[in-house]
Specification:
The complex is a heterodimer of chains A (about 575) and B (about 375). By secondary structure, chain A is of the alpha/beta class. Chain A is built from 20 helices and 22 strands. In chain A, the strands form five sheets. A six-stranded mixed beta sheet of chain A has the order 6-7-8-3-9-10, with helices on both faces. A six-stranded mixed beta sheet of chain A has the order 18-19-20-13-21-22, with helices on both faces. A four-stranded antiparallel beta sheet of chain A has the order 2-1-4-5, with helices on one face. In chain A, strand 11 and strand 12 form a beta hairpin. Chain A has three domains: about 230 residues, 3-Layer(aba) Sandwich (Rossmann fold), CATH 3.40.50; about 250 residues, P-loop containing nucleotide triphosphate hydrolases (Rossmann fold, 3-Layer(aba) Sandwich); about 55 residues, no CATH class. The longest helix of chain A has 16 residues. Chain B has a domain of about 230 residues. The longest helix of chain B has 30 residues. The chains are: A alpha/beta (about 575), B mainly alpha (about 375).
Chain lengths: ~575, ~375
């Protein structure tokens, strides 16, 4: 088979603000091959392909098509060079039929002849073995049929180079196999297929060559036949780098948060969390590793009351044993009920019974801190709103992935952002800005946030400072559970270490820290235990002190069936 | 090679979003845009107004009209203050909703039903109960009507996620036809025009318009306090900025939407009351006269800041009166004021683009130099 080069990229660099999405990438795509682009999320796969497809324009570098330099400024330009991309999110008109969607935007000579379009669509489908009815409306179609329409759309325009962005993310295993058959036939027809993916088994099953990207850079391109899973994993995650993050041994860990059989589905009804069970201990850092989008966000949101749960239990254990009961989150009646269940003892160790006592006397004792819990308090968090969780006295901090879109209000200053959690305090209808301002000044000083002042909109601060503000606020109300999703993403080294230090401090204070990370080096050095999540399932929990990077990489990428096979 | 590959060219210009621009600089851009708009107005006037075309030296007179229109006599000045106050009142009503990013385009209708409520009470009860009772009842009717008109789209938005812009816009037409209906009922002789009612007029201190102006100024201060210092105002800002953040801190987004639109409707109702009881004592389908839409501009240009709205509402009513003066002095069509306001507003709105985006022209030579330096 002829192996001439179809597209060649030379020195492609793309920046978004300060972050570099692609740095100096050289890559070539041959005719009649399936090239897999492998890399973790955020490694710059999609950005790179978007530059070939005309969505983005490279900051530096050149693209050659058939050996000649070309400029691709729009998807239209891309089509002129016979390049077509099938995006992760389909761009189809629901009310149109398959054929109508296919010819949308095509300028052909002659009139609009739907009949001949229908025929040509059927021809293309037959040639490569698709199953599609050109007259079927999109809204009647399954996800895989829609994807077929997208592929035919690109073929109809005469594309010789097809880029598929994570095409199997929305497909069942059987549909994926069908898709791969089609891709194989296209390849035999001389077309070039670029497959963006992070699934190792797909790469090994269908590709001819694999180009591995890591942190925006092209690490290597290898022939699939000459490689294996562990080599690819190593290329993808890189060699272990020592970061010298301080880690202390956890002292007297106790279960703080227990999740059992958690099931969550997204809006489309697809399962994003499937039977997730784990526990987090006070006084340790539990890392969560996994390819982005494997259900990490849903897991944290489910715990914090932001995500509807289909099945399962989330329990919080409040370390109240031998600690005084307060009226802070409990009414007098609740305290009386608990006393009736023999939940309390006095400082001298006698059991407490309030029977026949006047309320006034009970109040006095409780306020004096003389009534102590016998056991830790067990609180069920399932189906509670964030507000209810807080009212139950569960001090749960959450640093979400989307800092400005969820954790903070970008247009407000640091002081006003401090109020987000606490502004309801007090009965008056007006805001008390004095204390938030004090807290803001304290955080600015303690965490060395560089900002013109506490009223500068946080949107204007750099990523690291934004994160310090958010983490600072979440730590300020002395949490019992501290959850952080990608807390060091996009941060410079110094800010990252500040965050690690803060997490370690929380750990020393006996907080149960849950750290969702993407950098395996960091996870391995910072955490005590690491839980790996893979397509919504837990593929295992390892001891971070003994685990290796490769082990984690395998657990993250292996398809669950392979995993099951190995277990047997 | 088959493809007709063009010689390598980079895109000529590209835009980047400005992260921050100093308020002073932004103000400068807006003032420049305003001045530029005024110059264009002059040019358009040359083309459209024959008298000006024949005597180009009268261009000074043309621009003087913008001062003469609103400020030359006592009567004109009071009219200017009144116009600004009514416009400001409606814009104030929009501010809470807009801060929440709830695009209420229904202020026209919400105000009109406010007028309708007041006039209906006046029509049926005027003269039958003491005047002060009548005025109080009229106020309640206005507030109630405005609130109902605003709460319907809010509930639909909160419960079913309907598009609030279209919904509130449609409600305007319902309000207009509702007024037409009542006019047919009230004035059976076929003329459908209700004369000035003899009861239900707001008392006048010093000048007929003074009370209205004072009420609106008081309202401006109260609304400023509500928006910036109350817990409700804080919630509005959070919901407006990001519903996700609101959910994250446990704010009930739907409740905030409904509560805020209730306030918006109440204030529109109040504006309707000021028009119905303070000025007209009568109603036509055109009683609000498009001010509900102009108020959107007033609120928008002021970035939903009540105090800035005092300035923008004054600016727009001054422009309007100035342009009216021009059509009088130069004897041109009554549509001319709309043309003038349209042009000036166009430039002010267009200037937002330059405030939000930076334009880079590609200069190959400069890039080459940078490479050499590096």
């Amino acid at each position: 088979m002829e192996h001439s080069i179809a597209i060649e990229l030379k020195g492609i660099t793309k920046r978004f603000g300060q972050t570099v999405a692609n740095r100096n990438v050289d890559l070539d795509v041959r005719r009649g091959e399936i090239l897999a682009i492998l890399g973790e999320n955020g490694s710059g796969k999609t950005t790179l392909m978007n530059m070939i497809a005309g969505i983005y324009y490279p900051d530096e570098g050149k693209i050659f098509f058939n050996g000649k330099e070309v400029i691709i400024r729009s998807p239209h330009d891309a089509f002129e060079h016979k390049i077509g991309m099938i995006h992760q999110h389909f761009k189809l008109v629901d009310l149109f039929t398959a054929a109508e969607n296919v010819i949308l935007g095509v300028h052909e000579k002659g009139g609009y002849d739907l009949k001949s379009v229908n025929e040509r669509v059927s021809q293309i489908a037959q040639k490569y073995g698709f199953h599609i009815d050109p007259k079927k409306k999109i809204y009647d179609m399954s996800v895989s049929e829609k994807q077929t329409v997208e592929i035919i759309k690109v073929l109809y325009r005469g594309a010789d180079i097809l880029i598929l962005d994570e095409p199997t993310a929305v497909l069942t295993p059987k549909e994926s196999d069908q898709l791969f058959d089609v891709l194989q036939r296209m390849k035999e027809d001389g077309k070039s297929i670029i497959l963006i993916t992070h699934k190792m088994n797909e790469v090994l099953a269908v590709s001819d060559r694999v180009a591995v990207l890591r942190k925006g850079e092209h690490v290597a391109t290898v022939n699939t036949k000459e490689t294996n899973q562990s080599e690819l994993t190593e290329l993808m995650v890189g060699k272990k780098i020592s970061l010298n993050i301080e880690r202390t041994m956890p002292i007297e860990t106790k279960k703080r948060l227990i999740v059992k059989g958690l099931k969550v589905s997204n809006i489309d009804g697809r399962k994003v969390l499937d039977d997730v069970s784990f526990h987090a201990n006070g006084g340790e850092i539990l890392g969560i590793a996994g390819i982005a989008g494997s259900g990490q966000r849903e897991l944290l949101e489910a715990i914090s009351g932001l995500q509807k749960i289909d099945e399962g239990e989330i329990t919080f254990i409040n370390p109240k044993k031998n600690k005084p009961v307060t009226f802070f989150h409990k009414s007098l009646q609740t305290v009386k009920d608990l006393a009736a269940q023999n939940a309390f003892h006095t400082e001298s160790g006698h059991p407490v019974s309030f029977e026949g006592m006047p309320s006034k006397q009970i109040k006095k004792w409780v306020e004096a801190g003389e009534i102590l819990f016998n056991e830790d308090e067990i609180i069920n968090l399932r189906d509670k709103t964030p507000l209810q969780i807080r009212e139950l006295g569960v001090r749960l901090s959450f640093v979400p992935e989307d800092r400005l879109g969820m954790g903070l209000v970008g247009s407000m200053g640091i002081a006003d952002n401090m109020m987000l959690r606490s502004y309801r305090k007090g009965k008056a209808g007006f805001l008390d800005r004095r204390r938030p301002r004090q807290l803001a000044d304290e955080i600015i000083k303690r965490l060395q946030v560089s900002t013109p002042g506490s009223s500068t909109p946080v949107r204007r601060l750099s990523g690291g400072n934004v994160q310090k503000v958010l983490v600072g606020r979440e730590i300020a109300f002395s949490p019992k559970v501290f959850m952080a999703a990608y807390p060091v993403r996009g941060l410079d080294i110094n800010s990252s270490y500040t965050i690690y230090e803060l997490l370690n401090q929380q750990k020393k204070n006996g907080v149960a820290v849950i750290f969702v990370g993407e950098d395996l080096d960091v996870l391995l050095e910072l955490c005590d235990r690491i839980m790996v999540i893979n397509s919504g399932k837990i593929s295992g929990v390892v001891d971070a002190r003994n685990a290796t990077k490769e082990q984690l990489g395998m657990m993250m990428t292996k398809s669950t069936e392979d995993h099951a096979k190995e277990m047997v | 090679m088959k493809n007709k590959s063009s010689s390598p060219k980079e895109p000529l210009v590209h835009l980047t979003k400005r992260m921050d621009i100093s308020p002073l600089c932004a103000l400068g851009v807006r003032v420049l845009a305003f001045l530029f708009g005024m110059i264009i107005c002059g040019l358009v006037a040359f083309l459209l107004i024959e008298r000006l075309n024949d005597n180009p030296e009268r261009i000074g007179e043309f621009y003087q009209c913008f001062i003469k229109g609103p400020f030359s006599t006592r009567r004109k000045l009071w009219k200017f203050l009144k116009n600004s106050a009514v416009l400001l009142c409606i814009a104030l009503a929009l501010a809470p909703a807009f801060r929440m990013r709830f695009w209420n385009t229904g202020a026209e209708g919400q105000t009109l039903v406010g007028v309708l409520g007041a006039i209906a009470v006046n029509f049926y009860l005027g003269g039958k109960i003491p005047e002060w009772q009548l005025l109080v009842l009229m106020l309640f009717a206005s507030l109630l009507c405005g609130a109902i008109w605003a709460i319907i789209p809010a509930v639909f938005k909160a419960k079913w996620g309907t598009n609030e812009t279209l919904f509130t816009l449609m409600m305007n037409y319902v309000a207009t036809y509702l007024v037409s209906y009542f006019l047919v009922v009230w004035v059976p002789n076929g003329s459908s025009s209700l004369g000035k009612l003899s009861h239900g007029k707001l008392p006048s201190f010093y000048h007929d318009y003074l009370l209205i102006i004072l009420i609106v100024l008081g309202l401006t201060i109260l609304l400023h306090i509500y928006l910036t210092h109350s817990k409700h105002g804080y919630e509005i800002s959070v919901v407006g900025e990001s519903e996700n953040t609101a959910r994250y801190v446990g704010i009930n987004v739907n409740r905030v939407i409904i509560r805020t639109m209730l306030l918006s409707g109440l204030l529109c109702g109040l504006a309707g009351y000021l028009i119905g009881a303070g000025l007209d004592q009568s109603i036509t389908p055109n009683s609000v006269g498009g001010q509900g839409f102009t108020a959107i501009m007033v609120a928008w240009m002021a970035k939903f800041n009540p105090f800035a709205m005092v300035i923008t509402s004054s600016l727009i009513s001054a422009l309007g009166q100035g342009a009216e003066q021009i059509s009088q002095d130069f004897n041109v069509s009554g549509a001319f004021p709309d043309v003038i306001i349209g042009i000036v507003l166009f430039f002010i709105i267009a200037s937002e683009f330059f405030i939000n985006y930076e334009i880079h022209f590609h200069k190959r030579h400069n890039m080459a130099k940078e490479v050499l330096k590096g």
